[in-house]
Amino acid sequence: MTDIIKKLEVSCDASDEELKSLIDSESCDTALYEAADRVRRANYGTDVYMRGLIEFTSYCKNDCFYCGLRRSNRSAVRYRLEKSDILGCARAGYGLGFRTFVLQGGEDMHYTDDMICDIVSALKAEFPECAVTLSIGEKSRESYQSYYDAGADRYLLRHETADNAHYSKLHPDTLSAENRKRCLYDLKEIGYQVGAGFMVGSPYQTVNELIADLRFMQKLEPDMIGIGPFIPHRDTPFRDMPAGTLGLTLRMLAITRLMFPYALIPATTALGTISPDGRERGLRAGANVIMPNLSPADVRKYYELYNNKICSGDEAAESVLIMGRRIKDCGYTPVSARGDVRRGGGEPPLAPRGVS
Ligand code: SF4
Predict the structure, then answer these.
(1) CB 109 within 8 A of CB 61
(2) What is the pLDDT of residue 32?
């Protein structure tokens, strides 16, 4: 197994059979995490980029079988933030040092393209040196282009699973893996820094689907890769399905770091939900991004994608202090700079848009 890890570390690739044996084996976890940590340090040093997350709407028109925000969930409490609320969250975040704001929400038709563009432009006008990341789901290419023209820098859209048949077991017929992939390629072509990613341990997933995820990302070459365990939500069709495990999620995270050395990889909230030290262990397995929540404390608990999502009622300032301390305790350095992707092993980041 150490030969496969070495091969991945040197060449960023391995055969399907080799990947399968690595994914299935628990015996080599320590060596795998150490290799992933070496690769992240070679590319990003000890930096851990802090992104300010603003979850601005819990409405969604979709009905994904695994998600607590699905439209069929009548128990979900829905909220929307106004533009002024979003700007207020960003102002507070800016004061705490954040230079990336991530606007995340369900696919909420209340926000027209003009409204999203207006919010993005206002953020860029007030915080020109900050990156604005959108994570608002599947849209037309024209919509993506309009957000980009308004100043959006990055877009997160996890592909969830690259296998078409598996995708259809997790989503209603109105959604397809093809369209999701079309969105990701559109975003890349437009010029966004693009984030893809997948769930680990989702219902009906086998090791073959996990390998398909890695192969899809080799083609797409996303700048950011989000990997989190599936966690069931009590008000969804998957309420009784087992959660993904910490061990398999960390193994996939470390393999991803070895295959995509340049990538920005978050230690996700879902990792921290299945284990109290999950995010720290994610950092040690190759993750280099943390996304503290800047949403107003009184609405955070309503953005419940899965059960028991960690959500402190702390004010943003306190959360940031705590996260910063935890990152340092792991031997890494919390960094509030924009933290653009670095391609080419230790090269300086790409120049931000509009900055020569
Ligand atoms: S996963 Fe996203 S698109 Fe699907 S129901 Fe949840 S918020 Fe909506």
Answers:
(1) yes
(2) 97
CA of 139 to the centre of ligand 1 (A): 13
The token pair at 258 is 């070895």
Q: Domains of the chain (ranges plus CATH)?
A: 2-12+29-335 (3.20.20.70)
What atom in ligand 1 is closest to the CA of residue 67?
Answer: 6
307 lines ligand 1 (CB under 6 A): no
Cα(76)–Cα(98) distance, integer angstroms: 30
The per-residue pLDDT for 346 is 45
211-234 tens-digit pLDDT: 999 999 999 999 999 999 999 999
185 CB-side CA count, 13 A:
9
Distance CA 151, CA 189 (A): 16
**Which distant-in-sequence residues (6+ apart) come within 8 Å of 2 by Cβ?**
28, 31
Answer whether 105's CB lies under 8 Å from 133's CB: no
CA–CA dist 268, 156 (Å, integer): 13
DSSP-derived secondary structure letter, 299: T
Q: Please tell me the distance from the alpha carbon of residue 4 to that of residue 10, in angstroms, as a whole number.
A: 10
Q: pLDDT (tens digit, 9 = 90+) per residue, 18-42? A: 999 999 998 889 999 999 999 999 9
Is the distance from CB of 332 to CB of 283 less than 8 angstroms? yes
In this structure, what token pair is assigned to residue 19? 């990947």
Token pair, residue 239, equals 């309420």
Residues 342 and 43 sit within 8 Å (Cβ to Cβ): yes
How far, in Å, are 16, 40, 101, 246 from residue 25 at the CA level?
Answer: 14, 22, 38, 14
At residue 290, the 3 state secondary structure works out as strand
* Predicted TM-score (pTM) of this structure: 0.94
Non-local (6+) Cβ contacts of 325 within 8 A are none
Contact between residue 313 and residue 300 where contact means Cβ atoms under 8 Å apart: yes
User: How close is the Cα of 71 to the center of ligand 1, in Å?
Assistant: 8
**What's the 324 CA to ligand 1 centre distance in angstroms?**
30
Ligand 1 near 76 CB (within 6 A): no
Neighbours of 46 (CB within 10 A): 17
Please name the amino acid found at residue 231.
Answer: I
